């Protein structure tokens, strides 16, 4: 059984996260802490020409926060949003927070020919802990 499980969530893929949460529950049993993490990639500077970057940033935070809360609703999970490169941030967060298992989907549904998507591949290669990949 694991005690501290991280479930990275890409909010743009609605249909693939139920299985990850269910697997986290199974792997952790009743006592485990489960964290749902979404990483928002930085908005390119040119988008902010005219000084509107803070507004866009705030809107993105709001939208992502709502999407993540919707995934987490009814589940006993903590939600976290970070900025940066998803693969790197997931691996760093897991290490900093003493996560002992990461549960991640392998790739977008329909991309069956690929073994792993780029974020999943980075996490599998660089995580300090076990990674459970859902096909
Ligand atoms: P694909 O390119 O096919 O979507 P990825 O490797 O990017 O493959 O995504 C696989 C999984 O990686 C997602 O289901 C999710 O668990 C995680 N992931 C991808 N992007 C993010 C992100 N921005 N924040 C958190 N997790 C992510």
Summarize the structure.
The protein is an alpha/beta fold.
How are the secondary structure elements laid out?
Layout (H helix, E strand, L loop, with lengths): L3 E5 L9 H11 L4 E8 L12 H20 L5 E6 L2 H11 L4 E5 L12 H9 L3 E5 L1
Parallel strand pairs: 1-2, 1-4, 2-3, 4-5
Helix pairs in contact: 3-4
Structure explained in plain terms:
The chain has 135 residues and is α/β, with parallel strands linked by helices. It has a single domain, classed as Rossmann fold (3-Layer(aba) Sandwich), CATH 3.40.50.620. It is 38% helix and 21% strand. The protein has 4 helices and 5 strands; from the N terminus they run βαβαβαβαβ. The chain has helices spanning 18-28, 53-72, 86-96, 118-126, and strands at 4-8, 33-40, 78-83, 101-105, 130-134. It has a 5-stranded parallel beta sheet with strand order 3-2-1-4-5, with helices on both faces. α2 links the parallel β2 (33-40) and β3 (78-83). The chain is globular. The two termini are 21 Å apart. The mean pLDDT is 89. Adenosine-5'-diphosphate (ADP) is lined by residues 8-10, 13, 16, 37-39, 86, 104-105, 107-108, 111, 117-120.
């Amino acid at each position: 059984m694991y005690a501290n499980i991280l479930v990275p969530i890409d909010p743009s893929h609605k249909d693939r996260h139920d299985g990850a949460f269910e697997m986290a529950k199974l792997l952790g049993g009743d006592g485990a802490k489960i964290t749902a993490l979404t990483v928002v990639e930085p908005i390119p500077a040119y988008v902010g020409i005219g000084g509107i970057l803070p507004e866009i940033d705030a809107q993105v935070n709001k939208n992502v926060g709502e999407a993540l809360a919707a995934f987490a609703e009814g589940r006993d999970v903590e939600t976290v949003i970070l900025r940066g490169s998803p693969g790197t941030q997931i691996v760093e967060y897991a290490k900093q927070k003493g996560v002992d298992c990461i549960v991640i989907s392998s790739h977008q549904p329909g991309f069956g020919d690929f073994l792993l998507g780029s974020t999943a591949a980075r996490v599998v290669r660089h995580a300090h802990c076990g990674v459970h990949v859902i096909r």
